[in-house]
Each structure stands twice: as C-alpha cells, then as structure tokens.
Amino acid sequence: MDGAQRTTAALLDREERAVAALLTRYKNLVTLAAMPAGDGATKEIAAAHAFQMEVESNALVQAAEDLLQLTRELKELWLSGPLRKIGEGENDDKMAENSKKVREMVEDILNKASRLNGPNAAATAI
C-alpha cells in the first residue's frame, strides 16, 4: 500500500465505499428474492432470475472480502505503524551497531555470572 492510500481520508473513503457496496448488493439480493416468479414464467426467465441472484451473491461476497481486506490493512498499520518516509532509515547502521554492543555486554555479564556461581547463576543474574 503506497502513501496515498494510507491517509485517513482515503481509508475512510474505502470503508464507506465497501459498506455501501455491501449494502447495495444485499438490497439487490433481497429484492431479487422477493420478486414473484409469476404464473407464466418460463424456464428461461427462471434461469435468468437465478443467474442474477448468483451474480449478486458473488458480488456480495466480494464486497465483504473487500471490507475484510481493509480491516486487515488497518490492523497491519496499527501494529507496524506507518512506513518510513524518505531519509528516515539513515540511523539503522548506528542502531545495529548499538544492538551488537548491548548483546556483547549481556553475554559478558552472563558468562561472568556463570563462571562465578555455576551454570544456574546466569538465570539469577538477569
């Protein structure tokens, strides 16, 4: 998802369109189901009516899937936060270097504790 699709207005618009499509398809399906077949209905008319109901059912499922896709994307945004903008990842090398130093310091502490007090002391040193 690119930056233009991540704005609040764009996400709200997608949500409104998905809900509107869902409601429209459901209304169409209910309308088709409530239509009387009539006494003089031929097999062709019944088949066309069944086909219209199938098309509306498939469109209803697609609208629900679109809404679910939007909720998954919103959850992803909520969990991972927005993606970085240009120039925002420039301190990654420094962060990686600092994390290596912290890892080495923790390993040193655990090694010293295990040498002094035995193998179970490493767990109590933390």
Describe the structure in your own words.
With 126 residues, this protein is mainly alpha-helical. The protein folds into 2 domains: 83 residues; 37 residues. The chain is built from 4 helices and no strands. The longest helix is centred in the middle third of the chain and has 38 residues. It comes from Oidiodendron maius (strain Zn).
The quaternary state of the protein chains shown equals single chain
Average per-residue pLDDT, rounded, comes to 81
Strand percentage: under 5%
Class by helix and strand content? Answer: mainly alpha
Largest sheet entry: none
Question: What is the rounded distance between the termini?
Answer: 41 Å
What would you call the shape? elongated
User: Helical stretch count?
Assistant: 4
Number of strands: 0
Uncertain segments: none
* Share in helix: over 70%
Helices and strands, in order, run as HHHH
Query: What gyration radius follows from the Cα positions, in whole Å?
Result: 30 Å
Number of domains: 2
Give a brief rundown of this model.
The chain is built from four helices and no strands. The chain has helices at residues 8-34, 43-80, 92-117, 121-125.
Keywords summarizing the entry:
126 residues; mainly alpha
What layout of secondary structure does this protein have?
Blueprint: H1 8-34, H2 43-80, H3 92-117, H4 121-125
Helix pairs in contact: 1-2
